[in-house]
Amino acid sequence: MDRMVLMVRGHEIWLEASKVKGKNVELELFYGHNMAVDGCPDPKNITPTIYDPAKKKFALKITPKKDSHSLKFKADKDGYYTAVADMSPETYSNTKKEGFKAGPKSMYKDVVYAGAWHQMAKTIFSVGSNGKYVAEPVHGILDIVPKDARAKVGKELELTVYYEGKKLPGVEVKAVSKKEGKEMAIVVTDNEGVAKVPIKAEGPWMFLARHRDPSKGVPDQYDEAVFVTTLTLEASKN
């Protein structure tokens, strides 16, 4: 199936800290659905960024692999790191005759809907001694912020969703366990933008939020902006 249609219907990007050995870190960026890989985006459309424990920001080089993109770096501080990847916005128009087509409304005569898709992915991981984790938005117009950087099996993980720096109520947060290979929960954020997700399995988890903003529509271009963001964390029993 065309990647454009897959993105519109629900494919997303996510990050995993695949190897942390001493100061050597390898991250991987994936594309697919519910943590099942399905292709890979063009690396030219991905901008990866690392925030170190002091919140100092630096860029990363992407190395394409068969089913993912590798991002390697040497950590110079102990503590919690946040990695973020932004995908270049893409505009799609839904036409009466041919369905979704790439490009703005102005390119077609029979458009019934057009959206500008913005995708972001984030993961939080520790190097050396954990240090202190601060739960606050770091990057991205739509951001999922965990109260704790480590998910615990058998407990709830508290997540706060922010949009443009403000807490976002009424948005669905989807939780996926890589070990279980499926969606485990959908929780709607409360009036404070908080969703409490039960963690029932070890290993990597992905949390996804999607928000549509018609106020960011552009005449003759698209009706709304669609923001999709993912957060991945490792869950353990201890």
Automatic annotation (TrEMBL):
Look up the domain of life of the source. Answer: Archaea
Against InterPro entries, the record matches this protein to:
DUF4198 (IPR019613)
Family annotation (Pfam families):
DUF4198 (PF10670)
Protein name (database record): ABC-type Co2+ transport system, periplasmic component
